[in-house]
Amino acid sequence: MNVIFLGSTGVHQSLLAANAYIDPQSDPSCQALLYFNDYQQEAGGHPIYIGRDHDGRRIHSLGVGSDVKMVGKTINQLRIILDSSAEELQLIPIIIKSQRLISWLHQLARLRWLKPFSSYLIAGILKREYDNIKRQIPGLWIDDNST
Amino acid sequence: MKIIYHCFGGSHSSVTAAALHLGLLSKDRLPDGQELMALPYYDKTNNDDFGSIHFMGRDEQGNEIYVLGKKSLGNRFSHLLMGVAEMLGKEDQILVVNVMDRVNISMKLGGFTSRRISMPFLGRPVVIRGTQQAFAAMINLVEVIKIRILNKTEVK
């Protein structure tokens, strides 16, 4: 079984979500995450393997551009034409308001000397969006007001 | 094998390449507008078709031929789909072909006018003319792909 977290980029919000899914107690500061704001990794376009969850499922992060829903539809159709069952692949889209801004700031990471600045700004945005990201992770969100 | 030809809208260049692959268009002469319009999906898709993988037919080797519109995702879309196929352990069953580098300005302008801003009476003649101009390049692409399929299946 594979789980793919889909985001406009694979090295920001979906990466953070994938790591939070594997380890809900992990530190939400994302600058320490492997592949965070990695321009080369993102440019490749391949799914990024993050690790396994407690059930042994393989967790990935994937950047698919601004139309996350469209690519989700394509991947599901691809799975069907490849005769794979729905249990073999679960897609979890992560959509946040500032994804366009993040994609734009990520372009700065192309220049090595601007990457720390780009990473700092994106980490700040993701910190603000963290609750929204967690809400989109199945089985992770616990409403503080419900207790 | 499953071969997916993809372009911006899944409506012109990918359909033409798939039709050439399937023998729905002759390689020996330029197709006229009527022949192109008779192809399934040619200049007929709408916004809901973006991201949909459409089946076009089976070639003489039994390979399934599909077309797909992926907006402006570029060549990374091939990597993305191949990556997912790899994840499912089916990478040897699929070939993903980006047709965008064979597309000329007439196809882009005509396709945009006909499909995106819904003015086919203006865009269709332009995109048909563009398809005819790009026809030799499309034939070349399909020949390359057929050789790649042959190599891939022989290696297996």
The structure class of chain A reads alpha/beta
Percentage of residues in strands of chain A: 5-15%
- Compute the CA-based radius of gyration of chain A: 15 Å
Overall domain count of chain A: 1
- Class inferred from helices and paired strands of chain B: alpha/beta
Average pLDDT confidence of chain A is 89
Describe this entry's structure for a reader.
The complex is a heterodimer of chains A (147) and B (156). Chain A is α/β, with parallel strands linked by helices and 147 residues long. Chain A has one domain. Chain A has helices at residues 13-22, 39-44, 68-81, 99-108, 115-135; strands spanning 2-7, 48-52, 58-63, 89-93. A four-stranded mixed β-sheet of chain A has the order 2-3-1-4, with helices on both faces. In chain A, helix 4 packs antiparallel against helix 5. The model of chain A has no long low-confidence stretch (mean pLDDT 89). Chain B has 156 residues and is α/β, with parallel strands linked by helices. Chain B has one domain (2-101, 138-155). Chain B has helices at residues 13-22, 33-37, 76-87, 105-116, 120-133, 135-155, and strands spanning 2-7, 53-58, 64-69, 94-98. In chain B, strands 2-3-1-4 form a four-stranded mixed β-sheet, sandwiched between helices. The chains are: A alpha/beta (147), B alpha/beta (156). Chains A and B meet through strand 3 and helix 3 of A and strand 3 and helix 3 of B.
Chain-wise SSE layout:
The complex is a heterodimer of chains A (147) and B (156).
Chain A: E1 2-7, H1 13-22, H2 39-44, E2 48-52, E3 58-63, H3 68-81, E4 89-93, H4 99-108, H5 115-135
Parallel strand pairs in A: 1-3, 1-4
Antiparallel strand pairs in A: 2-3
Chain B: E1 2-7, H1 13-22, H2 33-37, E2 53-58, E3 64-69, H3 76-87, E4 94-98, H4 105-116, H5 120-133, H6 135-155
Parallel strand pairs in B: 1-3, 1-4
Antiparallel strand pairs in B: 2-3
Helix pairs in contact in B: 1-6, 4-5
